[in-house]
Amino acid sequence: MCRTDRVPTAGILWLALVVIMFVARSIAADHKDLIHDVSYDFHGRRMATCSSDQSVKVWDRSENGEWHCTASWKTHSGSVWRVTWAHPEFGQVLASCSFDRTAAVWEEIVGESNDKQRGLSHWIKRTTLVDSRTSVTDVKFAPKHMGLMLTTCSADGVVRIYEAPDVMNLSQWSLQHEISCKLSCSCISWNPSSSRAHPPMFAVGSDDSNVTYGGKVQIYEYNENTRKYAKAETLMTVTDAVHDIAFAPNLGRSFHVLAIATKDVRIFKLVPMRSDRKESTSTGPTKLEVQIVAQFDNHNSQVWRVSWNITSTLLASSGDDGCVRLWKANYMDNWKCTGILKGDGSPLTSSSGQPTAMSTIVGSSVQTSQNALNGMSAGRYFFPPLDPPRAGTRYGHLLPPSSLIEHCDAEPIQPQQALPYRLSSRALLPLPEAEGQ
């Protein structure tokens, strides 16, 4: 977070930048086994964690920035792989998936009776989805403009999409689509674009070790005419096990950006072929031109998580090297590492003892506490999602600081350093007087 002081002198605007550093905060999660996943709610004020101890915990952030566990309960009879929040438009709803071959939907209920439970909240199971015959490896809610829909993928290679026809009755879910990917599935990601020019799309990754050929990432797109999902593309260059995938938030782009965590970090650009658009919508999915725009092996190990910030300008990745690395593209779309964090949240120092890419470490308290929750052996890392209209509120400090976005390609800025910015040398013309004055 930066404060900018403007001092106009003789046609020069001086920008005094004051960089405020945040201290990493470690949270004692009190799980009895490895934490597999952490998920923020839409506003970034609540977290949910899941573990091999078969439980899910919900954490709320207080006014002073501390995280407190407000709910904890056993959810499954096996390791819980993933947990995710629904959009708050549908209430406080969680979904979890497990090695026990099921996925579950949970809803927070606030007591309304006059007894001791009045005003207190508790979580109840609304439904259990039992269609999978193998471990359910990932669960994701679809973008809110599609309604309340839930997607699961399983080790049996099947992606299942469920819909709640009545959002007021979450005990009723219907299986809308069942898609066979023919490879063991490990992760899924929805394209968040709500543009009418982009039909609903999701990507699924595979960690199938029995298949050493062919692409391990498949892209599926919804066809309005057939009312089914069809494979639009397979990323044939991704042949190693995929641990995580993440579509970047689409802020008006005509193409899609997909990050992949495998033995390295890869960023792909998926460009719809406009010349084939009319034909493809009637006969099949849109043809995509696949371009790999970045590939990094800096982790020197397996990469377990990739996560975008809210503006899709910064990508975080984490791996078995015990570090979180931040990636950003410059104006020429050249990606490079702009910051490295160790597992305890401190910046990785160079041989000279100076922090590496110090300007990118600003404002990392929430992110680093996130990594501490996940545990170093799992190598997980996430950006909290933010509600853009609330950026000016007390939660504004969660936004990526300007030093991350504007100055990551420049030399690190020293505190209190004044930077000149020359204004136009032309004199300002006086404002016209209002009529009648």
UniProtKB/TrEMBL annotation:
<dbReference type="InterPro" id="IPR020472">
    <property type="entry name" value="WD40_PAC1"/>
</dbReference>
<dbReference type="InterPro" id="IPR036322">
    <property type="entry name" value="WD40_repeat_dom_sf"/>
</dbReference>
<dbReference type="GO" id="GO:0005765">
    <property type="term" value="C:lysosomal membrane"/>
</dbReference>
<keyword id="KW-0131">Cell cycle</keyword>
<feature type="repeat" description="WD">
    <location>
        <begin position="28"/>
        <end position="60"/>
    </location>
</feature>
<keyword id="KW-0137">Centromere</keyword>
<feature type="repeat" description="WD">
    <location>
        <begin position="296"/>
        <end position="328"/>
    </location>
</feature>
<protein>
    <submittedName>
        <fullName>SEH1-like (S. cerevisiae)</fullName>
    </submittedName>
</protein>
<dbReference type="InterPro" id="IPR037363">
    <property type="entry name" value="Sec13/Seh1_fam"/>
</dbReference>
<keyword id="KW-0458">Lysosome</keyword>
<keyword id="KW-0906">Nuclear pore complex</keyword>
<dbReference type="GO" id="GO:0007059">
    <property type="term" value="P:chromosome segregation"/>
</dbReference>
<dbReference type="GO" id="GO:0005198">
    <property type="term" value="F:structural molecule activity"/>
</dbReference>
<keyword id="KW-0132">Cell division</keyword>
<keyword id="KW-0677">Repeat</keyword>
<keyword id="KW-0539">Nucleus</keyword>
<comment type="function">
    <text>Component of the Nup107-160 subcomplex of the nuclear pore complex (NPC). The Nup107-160 subcomplex is required for the assembly of a functional NPC. The Nup107-160 subcomplex is also required for normal kinetochore microtubule attachment, mitotic progression and chromosome segregation. This subunit plays a role in recruitment of the Nup107-160 subcomplex to the kinetochore.</text>
</comment>
<dbReference type="GO" id="GO:1904263">
    <property type="term" value="P:positive regulation of TORC1 signaling"/>
</dbReference>
<dbReference type="GO" id="GO:0000776">
    <property type="term" value="C:kinetochore"/>
</dbReference>
<keyword id="KW-0509">mRNA transport</keyword>
<keyword id="KW-0653">Protein transport</keyword>
<dbReference type="GO" id="GO:0035859">
    <property type="term" value="C:Seh1-associated complex"/>
</dbReference>
<dbReference type="InterPro" id="IPR001680">
    <property type="entry name" value="WD40_rpt"/>
</dbReference>
<dbReference type="GO" id="GO:0034198">
    <property type="term" value="P:cellular response to amino acid starvation"/>
</dbReference>
<comment type="similarity">
    <text>Belongs to the WD repeat SEC13 family.</text>
</comment>
<keyword id="KW-0811">Translocation</keyword>
<keyword id="KW-0813">Transport</keyword>
<dbReference type="InterPro" id="IPR015943">
    <property type="entry name" value="WD40/YVTN_repeat-like_dom_sf"/>
</dbReference>
<feature type="signal peptide">
    <location>
        <begin position="1"/>
        <end position="29"/>
    </location>
</feature>
<keyword id="KW-0732">Signal</keyword>
<dbReference type="Pfam" id="PF00400">
    <property type="entry name" value="WD40"/>
</dbReference>
<dbReference type="GO" id="GO:0031080">
    <property type="term" value="C:nuclear pore outer ring"/>
</dbReference>
<keyword id="KW-0995">Kinetochore</keyword>
<dbReference type="GO" id="GO:0051301">
    <property type="term" value="P:cell division"/>
</dbReference>
<keyword id="KW-0853">WD repeat</keyword>
<dbReference type="GO" id="GO:0015031">
    <property type="term" value="P:protein transport"/>
</dbReference>
<keyword id="KW-0159">Chromosome partition</keyword>
<keyword id="KW-0498">Mitosis</keyword>
